[in-house]
Design brief:
By secondary structure, the protein is mostly helical. The protein is built from 3 helices and no strands. Helix 1 (16-32) packs antiparallel against helix 2 (38-79).
Length: 104
């Protein structure tokens, strides 16, 4: 069975439990498909397609949410001035190079 690990803060994504439930239901349906009478196979497959649509919709919603969060981070980083940090880093690197030269 598919079971993703917990998120960094120890919780699952909000819809993860619902998606896991749908995947479990789909697995049970797949296991039972061999014993379904031929005339009921179409209904069982139709149900499986519906479950897959719901799972896909949940995944797409999660991806959209991740993209939105990434866009928010990009917007914040675009506003940050890294100039002082870059200057300090260059100075440290310069000092390290000077310290490594013979006779200094």
């Amino acid at each position: 069975m598919y079971s993703p690990g917990p998120m960094e803060d120890g919780r699952h994504a909000p819809d993860m439990e619902r998606l896991e439930s749908k995947v479990d239901e789909l697995e049970r349906l797949t296991d039972a498909l061999g014993s379904v009478p031929d005339k009921e196979v179409v209904d069982a497959l139709s149900h499986a397609v519906g479950l897959l649509r719901e799972i896909n919709a949940g995944i797409e919603a999660g991806l959209k949410s991740a993209r939105d969060g990434s866009s928010d981070v990009d917007e914040i980083l675009d506003r940050v001035n890294f100039g002082p940090f870059d200057e300090a880093l260059e100075e440290i690197e310069s000092q390290e190079r000077s310290a490594g030269e013979p006779g200094t």
